[in-house]
Amino acid sequence: MIYHSSIILQLIGFLLLLIAESRIVFEKPTKWNNAPGWPAVKIRLTKRGAEHIKLVGVKILNEEISRLSGFQTLHSFSEHGITGRVQLYNVNVLRYSPPRYTSLEFVSPSYVIFQMDRMDIALAGRFAGTVALLPVTGSVTGDLRQMSVRLQTKFNRAINGLIEVKARINEVIRQKIPNVFCNSLQRIIEDSSPHLFQRLAFTNLTDHFHSINLVDNMIISKLFRRLTKGLYIDNRNINDPIVTADYFETQQKGEIRYDNDHRPTPFNAPVMHTGNDSSRMLYFYGSEYLFNSLLYHAYEGDRIIVEIDENTLPPQYKPIVRTSCGNSQRSNWNFVSSLCLGILIPEIANRYPNASSSFLLLPHQIPEFRFCKDTGSIDLKNRVLTYINDGRRRKQIMVSTADFQADFRLLIEDEKIAAALKINKFDISAIKGLTSSSIAQLAPLAKTFFGPQLVKALKKGIPLPLKDSIEFINPELIIHDKFVEIATDFRLGEQKLREEVKKAFASVFHS
């Protein structure tokens, strides 16, 4: 009986040691929102923004139509009991007069209506095909005057989370102009539109952080590489877009995760009370869920672990991990290089002279990010395991806590979302092993060491969405309760759009 009691006590002691020295198994905070169905990202294109896109788009469309030459297309027909297929080829536009009037409307619940009125176009080409099983060949000319097209496009969420685009041409108009023209225009809309929404649905973040140069601090550099490797935003649509008379707005998942991490995020986005503002051309709304989903997956994937030893420290900081201080009369002497762990914690110097120490920072609670009162803030609680290496073996001598709290002031600089960091708290206290109160002296040193490097990394920022396609004009960033808003005007990049239109025309008229 005594023997069994001894085993039980040893097991209890072992479990308590594990709790003290390891990160705690995930336990969902009660204040996390559990109601599903709310988007963490919304992109709102207003009527003003759509009008600008229409003006640029119609200009480029007119250019491409007037230059069409040598294109081909297949046309099937069935009239008066006669069916057939005709291949049009070597078709050239002889004359084209752009539409005299164009309009664009947003119509609830899910439609965008585009209309072009009074266009003239003359075509000439060759054809070959079969009509009632008889082969036919010849030439064809067409002269369409005062042509009008009214295109109704419906946007819905597809099963895969992308936006499904269905274009329909008014049937009265369809009867007045050849189906070959209508079908080609319809294919351009339906085939090219999903590419834009697919780009918005998945955003690779790893590449955005490659430009951050932290070679002067291996510890922070390794941390950032670990944090950003395989990182992406899952921005698939969770609901149909919202269409009102004033704007078109997506409803997106907004989950940041890693490409090799398939576990679901066990909480949902809170409600974003975004209102109905449409005075600017474009709005981006991002919930704090974006950051908390990243922190959850980084925590569960052991990506927030920080290792500090003599090999990873910059030269000026290497003496800090020594238990005994060396000669302070060196030519490159400064205050930091004169410090060592033995001075800060004499108890370590007495017990382990002339040795090297190392530290392992393990988060033992899931970090939490919040938007409140014009700032973002983060709380991070760590266990700090301290080791001594006397040249023969590595021995753990102490377990400490390190509580970190910082505020982020988000800002827009050079078309990037960046952050100004202010560390409010970096407290260290011993909980196991050496109990010297001097352990608290490591806190300001750690703050001095980590602070400037974190500030430098966050200052680099990441590009605004769609930066490769549009130029942002006077973007404004506003922090609300639980979400951030970016309101901006923009100028569409004509060259990028022209390339997309050329691809769309090539796929339809030259395939």
Description of the structure:
With 511 residues, the protein is α+β, with helices and mostly antiparallel strands. It has a domain at 37-44 and 202-485: Bactericidal permeability-increasing protein, domain 2. The chain contains ten helices and 22 strands. The strands form four sheets. Strands 14, 15, 16, 17, 18, 19 and 20 form a seven-stranded antiparallel sheet that branches. A six-stranded antiparallel sheet has the order 10-11-1-13-22-21. Strands 2, 3, 4, 5, 6 and 7 form a six-stranded antiparallel sheet that branches. Strand 17 (375-389) and strand 18 form a beta hairpin. The longest helix is centred in the middle third of the chain and has 23 residues, at 179-201. The N and C termini lie far apart (85 Å).
**Global geometry:** elongated
Helix content: 25-40%
Q: How big is the Rg?
A: 32 Å
Number of helices: 10
Structural class computed from helices and strand pairing: alpha+beta
Count of extended strands: 22
Task: Tell me the distance between the termini.
Answer: 85 Å
CATH architecture of one domain: Super Roll
Name the poorly predicted regions. Answer: 1-25
CATH first level of one domain:
Alpha Beta
Keywords: Signal
Pfam families: LBP_BPI_CETP_C (PF02886)
Protein name: Lipid-binding serum glycoprotein C-terminal domain-containing protein
GO molecular function: lipid binding
